[in-house]
Queue: 3 jobs
Job 1
Amino acid sequence: MNMDQISIQAKDGAVIRTNAFYPGISPAKGAVIVCHGFGEHSERYGEFAEKLALSGFISIVFDARGHGDLPPQYAKKPKKFYGIIPGYDSFLDDVHDVACWVKQAMPGVPLSLYGHSMGGNIALNYLLKRGEDGFKSAVVESPWIGLYKEVSPFESTLSKVVGAITPNVSVRSNIEPEDITSHKPKAREIEDDPNYHKRISLRMFSGIRDACAYAVKNASRLKLPTFLAVAHNDRIVCNDAIMRFADGCGPNLIMKKYDSYHSIHNDINGAAFYEDLIEFLDA
């Protein structure tokens, strides 16, 4: 597997830090754009990309806004960077800009969209709001369509009001690595990762909550072949909310539950997920 680091110009002038992982065969079977989860970054998906590369797929993993390498100007004030976004639409704009780059750099290569957790929310909302053109299929793993422990109505209203006023107010999430995966060495890797963070701005949180409701309300509009992976032992996102979304979808949705914590691909039983993922992408 070979990797290239790419800087893609975003719609608003920001730089989208992207890693492209290529298989050792040519031509590739397809390319998968990866939307990572909250607190993560593109370099956490090296093992994921290697699994796909062994089956002939390219992985394009980019840092979501407010995530990834801490820019030098924020070295002494990381709270001004982590979890801070202009608005929820910037997530969708970046998916569009990355997809445009892939289509230009790899013409004719079948393209799929993958999202984990927060990235699953972004992937679904991109397809529902911006359209499915250019994508062959989608994969969403433990999508954030609701939280295992929801905030109070007061906190929800506060995040919406404050988030509308300023993008710069953030709080620390209560997500712990041992809730992400039951694989203890990988949980320690997350804990020790200097670029993993737990900050979320009230603007980001409010935007994601609105996007959760939009996805459930508009689930029937999803027509793309979609593989939905659900973690039976998830203690981060709400499986009941995921089921409400799934119930609104049509026969294009394939759903499977795994005896896993939130990050199925990083869990002890991740091998079964990878087998199903590759089978779905190969179809």
Job 2
Amino acid sequence: MEIPGELSEATTTQAKLARYLELSKARITQLVDEKVVVRDESDAKGKILAFDSVRNYYLSQQSSERRQLLEGKRLARTG
């Protein structure tokens, strides 16, 4: 990971992010397409903005878990 002056500008590669998050490279590519993982548009190599991407991934996981929890409560009430 390359950390310049600002943490929000730290970049990494898709392969390293996949290792950090314990995901496949294919899943990282999907997350890039879904705009969860953010590319550094100023980087010619298309590196990933590490901080924004990890934050977005974490928040997307939280909202997914919250949806599942709410669906479980609805099923319990109707069942």
Job 3
Amino acid sequence: MRKETAGYSLLELTVVLAIMALVVAVAMPAVGASLERMTVQSDARALMLGLRALRAHALDRQVDIAVTVSGVEGNVLNASDGTAIVLAAGTVVAVAPELRVTWDGRITGAVRLSRGAARLQITPDRLTGRLSAAGVR
């Protein structure tokens, strides 16, 4: 007589682990790209919030504010009024041609954020100062 035991054989467990490893190996690049995209979107929201605050400051004080990129990784934007906008480490910021907030509320220039394959460009409306973020290919 054969005695039946509860549980799985070693072969069955090995097959299940191999299938799980294959699924994880296929899914990891998609998860990484998604994480990069979400980080860039979060940085874009933080940057737009900081620029809106600088715009309000420029309107209140009737001064022009220049914004420059600094930091070891190029992820810090410094304003001429002493304000700093720090983005996530690994996010690269490029300003073209010059980012300036004027005393009348206009914002000139554009900011491009990139992290891995994820890229966003923040552009202001020259008349209203309204900021918009769009993906860049």
